[in-house]
Amino acid sequence: MPAHVLAFHVMVTPETVSPGDIFLLQTAAGPYTSASAEFMGKTIKLHRTENNRLLAFVPVDVNTTPSKYNLLVNVGEDTFPSTVTVQSKEFETIHLTLPEGKVTLSPENQKRAADEAELLNNIWKLNNDKKWNGGFSKPLSTEISTEFGVKRIMNKKKTSVHRGMDFRGKEGTPVKSLNAGTVVLNKDLFYGGNTLIIDHGMGLYAVYMHLSEFRAAKGDKVAKGQTVGLVGMSGRATGPHLHLSVKLNGVSVNPESLFKLEL
């Protein structure tokens, strides 16, 4: 969908999104050193790029009610209004039967999972400068087994929303980095097993779960398409696959909407 051009040449791409999607906000920097946007009660920083533009990725939570929402861009002392339309989308519901130990956690596992959730939440709070270059590419060329947003009802009593994409893959298949960035975590986690997280800057993080091996260490700077791990089934997985999550300003977004952006 074509970008919407406002006064001061602010561009919103695309104008219409689905719950869970990401959109791009950008403008020429001009004489301004900083800018921010207000969307759905949150303030989002615009980052200056090497070609003298100000831009931001903006997340739309998967639970957002379809409607037209106001978007305000604050540049210096000026404010430029716009709107973003969130369209309706039906997400699939699936029923799963799992061993009870995979649904109801022991007190020890509950504590471990809670501690790890706090660790991850502290990572999402960091909003570093832009690290990515050009468009984002998929980590595997295989089929998707579970889409983003699927509602899973486990053993008829526990419901969860799938906040990532599952890629089919044989054990040991190389997993590629979506784009340039810095590894901020490679650790064995309760849910994700061997989990690797790459900071792409501007509040955007890619999370690779269930790996059999790491091929990048914390602190490594990685390039787009670089092998960062191997497909596995570590953690709470019933078979080898890659679970990819994308976090933006602490919000889980649909990786497919990121891949579709022309950057």
The first-to-last residue Cα distance is 14 Å
CATH structural architecture of the largest domain: Distorted Sandwich
Low-confidence stretches: 1-7
User: Number of domains in the coordinates?
Assistant: 2
What is Rg? 19 Å
Beta-strand residue fraction: 35-45%
| Strand line-up across the major sheet | 1-2-4-7-6-5-8-9-3
Assigned CATH class of the largest domain: Mainly Beta
Number of helices: 2
Mean pLDDT across residues = 91
Structural class by sheet pairing and helices: mainly beta
Give the CA-based shape: globular
The major sheet is characterized as: 9 strands, mixed
Give the full name of the CATH homologous superfamily of the largest domain. Glucose Permease (Domain IIA)
Helix content: under 10%
What is the H/E order?
EEEEEEEEEEHEEEEEEEEEEEEEH
Secondary-structure map:
Elements: E1 4-5, E2 11-13, E3 16-17, E4 22-28, E5 35-39, E6 42-48, E7 53-59, E8 67-75, E9 78-86, E10 93-96, H1 107-124, E11 144-146, E12 151-154, E13 158-161, E14 165-168, E15 174-176, E16 181-189, E17 193-201, E18 204-211, E19 213-214, E20 221-222, E21 227-230, E22 241-248, E23 251-253, H2 255-260
Parallel strand pairs: 3-9, 10-12
Antiparallel strand pairs: 1-2, 2-4, 4-7, 5-6, 5-8, 6-7, 8-9, 11-14, 12-13, 14-22, 15-21, 16-17, 16-20, 17-18, 18-22, 19-21, 22-23
